[in-house]
Amino acid sequence: MSKTLLLISLLVVALITSCDKKSPGNDYDLTNALNSYVTLTSTKPIDVVEGDSVSISFTMRTAFQQKVTVYYAVSSPVNLVDQSVIIDRNLLKAKGTFKIPEGIITDSSGTETAVLSVTKATTDDGQILTIGRYNDSTAQKVNIVISVP
Fold it and tell me: Could you tell me the CATH number of the domain that includes residue 77?
C-alpha cells in the first residue's frame, strides 16, 4: 500500500512540474498570420470583341458567414468605376460580368487594351479584406484586349 501511495505521489509531482515547462510548439507567433484575401481566379489576358460581355471570376481564401462585396474598375477605353460583385455567405467564388460597349475602338490598329483591377473587398459588417494572396493589389489585374468585329 505504501508503495502504491508513493508511486501515485511521484506521478502527481511529475505531472505538476511538467505543466510549467515550455515545449517546442507552445511558442508559435501567430500575430502575423495570413489574413483573409480576395483574388482574381485568373490574371491571364482576355480577348474580346466590341459588344461582347466579359466574365471575371473572384476567389477568396476563407468563406464567411456573411456576404463579401468585391469592387473592381475597368480602365479606358471602357471606363467602368466602382463595379462590384457579391460573394454570397459560405461561398468562396463569384463571377462578375460587364459588357464592352460598341464603337469604343479609336486606334487605327483595330485593338485597344483595357485593364481590370480589383480595388477593394469588404464584408457586410465592414471588415476590409486583403487584395491578393501576398497583399499586393497591383498583381490583381487583368488585361482585356478589345478588337473590332
Answer: 2.60.40.2030
The residue segments making up the domain with residue 94 are: 37-147
Whether 43 and 140 have beta carbons less than 8 Å apart is answered as yes
Residue 20 lies in a domain: no
Among 1, 71, 61, 2, residue whose Cα is nearest residue 36? 61
Report how far residue 81's alpha carbon sits from residue 98's, in angstroms, rounded to the nearest whole number: 12
pLDDT of residue 6: 75
Q: What is the pLDDT of residue 122?
A: 95
Asked whether residue 12 is domain-assigned, the answer is: no
Number of domains forming the structure of the chain = 1
* Rg over CA atoms, the chain: 27
> Is residue 101 in some structural domain?
yes
The single-letter DSSP state of residue 13 is H
In contact, 72 and 119? CB cutoff 8 Å = yes
More confident residue, 56 or 5: 56
pLDDT tens for residues 48-102? 999 999 999 999 988 999 999 999 999 989 999 999 999 999 999 999 999 999 9
DSSP secondary structure code for residue 93 in this structure: E
